User: Fold Prevent-host-death protein from Oleomonas cavernae.
Amino acid sequence: MTTVDIREAISNLSRLIAALEAGDESEIVIARDGQPAARLLPPAMATSQNLNKRIGLLEGKFAAPLDLDADDEELLRLFNGK
Assistant:
């Protein structure tokens, strides 16, 4: 992982992207005033890391009904105060 200042990132964006594409860098952190502000990731890594963290988050925590419309009449009755 490489960290670059935002000014350097702006000046060398093409070079930084080329390093990611070539596999020379796996992640580039862009810092503003010495604090991380953003990350550059290769597309495959960005997709697999960010999306897969959420998928399956509640697996095994509850069971979804097989028929989502089964209780429609009961819900309508309750909403209508009957």
Summary: The radius of gyration is 23 Å. The beta strands are 2-5, 28-32, 35-40. Residues 53 and 59 are 12 Å apart (CA to CA). Residues 13-22 form the longest helix (10 residues).
